[in-house]
Design goal:
By secondary structure, this protein is of the alpha+beta class. The chain folds into two domains: 34-138, Potassium Channel Kv1.1, Chain A, CATH 3.30.710; 143-197, 2-Layer Sandwich (Alpha-Beta Plaits). The chain has eight helices and seven strands; from the N terminus they run ααββααβαααβαβββ. The strands form two sheets. Strands 4, 5, 6 and 7 form a four-stranded antiparallel sheet that branches. Strand 1 (34-39) and strand 2 (42-47) form a beta hairpin. The N and C termini lie far apart (99 Å). GO terms for molecular function: cullin family protein binding. Residues 33-134 form the BTB domain. Pfam families: BTB_2.
Length: 214
């Protein structure tokens, strides 16, 4: 059969090719360039080169066919029992090295698939993206800073009224009189004030430089 093919007999070549796919897969060196994958009922067509872009991945091992004996459907496509929705971006990543997602596509879903297919660089990209998102989202509950100011009764109203820059009055603690002026007691208070602190994008906490006036 080989000699005839070398002589360029077209019809014979076609027949040999057909017989190969029906009986046993050809040896690794002569495998076809195109690969069909049936992912959860959706068929994807790609090349062996694309799938082997990531050497350690499940997809590369699958199409080399050495370790993984995968079932095939009636068209000869490898059957993979995974969600096809997220397979598109994974395949595209192998094609051009970029992660492109539709806006309603969850990164968690892609991460799950990237981990299943064992595509290291993609796992890192998604985790970085998710951390960035988390960082912007977690700014919502701000941190609170508390300060305790000590003052006397007569200074109290003035101090509370002059608090500025987002300082908020929280609590007043009467600590009794500490010393006597003649026959008048001056009651001492601890005044607790709080301020919300928002994280700015560069990671530093933003806080106005001037403190609450006492």
């Amino acid at each position: 059969g080989v000699r005839m093919r070398m002589e360029g007999r077209e019809e014979m070549q076609g027949a040999v090719g057909l017989r190969c796919t029906l009986d046993i897969p050809p040896p690794a060196g002569t495998q076809a360039k195109w690969v069909r994958l049936n992912v959860g009922g959706t068929v994807f067509l790609t090349t062996r080169q694309t799938l082997c872009r990531e050497q350690k991945s499940f997809l590369c091992r699958l199409c080399q066919g050495e370790e993984l004996q995968s079932d095939r459907d009636e068209t000869g496509a490898y059957l993979i029992d995974r969600d096809p929705t997220y397979f598109g971006p994974i395949l595209n990543f192998l094609r051009h090295g970029k992660l492109v997602l539709d806006k309603d596509m969850a990164e968690e879903g892609i991460l799950e698939e990237a981990e299943f297919y064992n595509i290291g660089p993609l796992i890192r990209i998604i985790k970085d993206r998710m951390e960035e998102k988390d960082y912007t989202v977690t700014q919502v509950p701000p941190k609170h800073v508390y300060r305790v100011l000590q003052c006397q009764e007569e200074e109290l109203t003035q101090m509370v009224s002059t608090m500025s820059d987002g300082w908020r009055f929280e609590q007043l603690v009467n600590i009794g009189s500490s010393y006597n002026y003649g026959n008048e007691d001056q009651t001492e208070f601890l005044c607790v004030v709080s301020k919300e602190l928002y994280n700015s994008p560069n990671g530093l906490s933003s806080e106005p430089s001037h403190k609450a006036k006492v």
